């Protein structure tokens, strides 16, 4: 979405950063220490991540269609799609790990900052649609739809998803699951009972 790469962003000159600090702008962070160079040419990192995301999407499509796939093949495909996801996510870790050859603390901070902004904007959109956001994690929000009808919940989820995705060119959220009940203990500590509907209209719980 923001074309974040070594080839599209650069650190602000020391003098520029110093001037910003003298102006006493609130909460100056490392994310403020970079400036966009080019927003028209795709950077190397976004291109590579796009390839991984597209490959994962293809594998997930195969899993969903389940055409002539054995249980063993389904497990293998699931492992593959998770591997693509972890590899794509690990590029952010490489930017923030000081011993990585791709280390750039400012880019890592910028990504975190933009991710937080997107999450907060998603929360605001949900609340404008008169639904309650009961919890927000690193890259997700959990919503109380005030409904116990599975089909209605999925329809509400699709409506919210479409409204949020409409705000962006590349960022795309999805419905990760429907919770029958949820226990929130504290930040990063929660448990939930996931409900899914089978093609035979039966419900399974995980």
Automatic annotation (TrEMBL):
GO terms for cellular component: alpha DNA polymerase:primase complex. It comes from the Eukaryota. GO terms for molecular function: chromatin binding; DNA replication origin binding; DNA-directed DNA polymerase activity; nucleotide binding; single-stranded DNA binding; zinc ion binding. Its EC number is 2.7.7.7. It is an enzyme of class 2 (transferase). Belongs to the DNA polymerase type-B family. This is DNA polymerase alpha catalytic subunit. It comes from Rotaria magnacalcarata.
């Amino acid at each position: 979405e923001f074309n974040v790469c070594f080839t599209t962003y650069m650190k602000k000159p020391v003098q520029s950063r110093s001037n910003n600090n003298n102006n006493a702008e609130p909460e100056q962070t490392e994310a403020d220490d970079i400036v966009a160079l080019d927003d028209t040419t795709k950077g190397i990192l976004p291109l590579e991540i796009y390839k991984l995301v597209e490959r994962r999407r293809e594998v997930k499509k195969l899993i969903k269609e389940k055409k002539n796939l054995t249980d063993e093949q389904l497990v293998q495909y699931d492992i593959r799609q998770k591997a693509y996801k972890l590899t794509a996510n690990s590029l952010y870790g490489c930017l923030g790990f000081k011993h990585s050859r791709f280390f750039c603390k400012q880019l890592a901070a910028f990504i975190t900052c933009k991710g937080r902004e997107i999450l907060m904007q998603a929360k605001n959109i949900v609340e404008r649609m008169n639904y309650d956001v009961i919890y927000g994690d690193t890259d997700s929000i959990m919503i109380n739809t005030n409904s116990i009808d599975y089909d209605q919940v999925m329809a509400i989820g699709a409506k919210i998803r479409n409204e949020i995705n409409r705000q962006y060119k590349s960022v795309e959220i999805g419905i990760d699951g429907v919770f029958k009940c949820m226990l929130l203990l504290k930040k990063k500590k929660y448990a939930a009972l996931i409900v899914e509907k089978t093609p035979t209209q039966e419900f399974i719980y995980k």
